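Need DUF3999 family protein's 3D structure for a figure. Predict it.
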Amino acid sequence: MKVKMKLLVFIGCWFGCSFAFGQLPKYEHRQELKNITEQWHKISLPLSVLDRSNPDLSDIRIYGLTENDTLEAPYVLNIGSGKHTKQKVDFNLLNTVSNANGFYYTYEIPTTESINELELEFDTDNFNWMVDLEGSQNQNDWFRILEDYRILSIKTGQTDYQHTTLTFPSSQYKYYRLLIKSHKSPKLTRTKLNLDSSLKAIYDSYPVTFMNIDQKDKKTIIDIDLNQSLPLSFLRLNLKETVDYYRPVTVKYVQDSIQTEKGLKYRYKELYRGTLTSIDTTGFKFNSTKAQKLRVIIENNDNRPLQVEGANIKGYRHELIARFDDKAKYYLAYGNKKARAPKYDIINIASQIPDDAPLLALGKVEHTPKAKKTNRALLENKLWLWMVMGFVIVVLGWFTLRMMAKR
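Structure prediction for DUF3999 family protein:
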């Protein structure tokens, strides 16, 4: 009987150990969420979390630990990518006249709608003009909206660039008058009046840890390293130039690398292609892409290289709005390549989520020790587990039959 009891104790311990192993954390990193005082809280994801998470952030979880249970807090992921909304406004072209100052175009808006953008299309290339824009309610009193606003077109074998959209603060006039300061007909073929009510993107700046500039084959090659893999969506080069410039530019990122006899070789994928110009120095915007290393190629052609002093790199701000229904010690967990994006009900009740949820502080990063691959492979092998269970059942059955025979 004692032998049987020992065997049962052994089996219980074995199953207990197996169960305990199954409860080990599946996420490589976690940070405690501190000062939870409300049901709803906001969590701003730092760069370290973005670096160590999956590209789509599918592995982010919020777990709460109690004495008897493990809870999961639902959340909504907000990405500050903005929202593009543009409304076309109907208008009538009243007249087109010209004098020594240039060519005038008068538009009438039959409604009371506001506009803040005017798109122009021309049946000509390679121009550089200044324009004025005025507004009026009666065509007698005109008020200046834009003065000496530059529009241009450059089309050559190396460059194809246009800047023909006028942007200005929202205005509400019945009449608008456009003056294109040109001595010859600009051949204006189409005009669009728009109200751009897009929400601006919210960015976080990323530190550049390394930048190398090389001049080769009439090209300026700029290699940038962030030392972290982060979701990038904006790049602006800081140039020290006093003259106008228009250069084709390509932005690439390192997709992967291979080891060769000559060393590590990077494989690049295109992220952006456009024109680097002194007319528009706001920077380049592109789809959010997780990357660590960038390469910017400027085509100088026969021009002298531009003086590049630095670069500003940004990504959309990432925030969680989480709901805490029960008291527990909560952690932000991340770092699981096999994890799938969670599905929570609160995504369907976005209107009930408060906009002013207080921000939570994150504790220090805790790393989960990685188990040895050999042990994990052995314990996760279903055939091996069935063999062990079968052996235990056979041994237990043998002892049972032996005890019955003795009786």
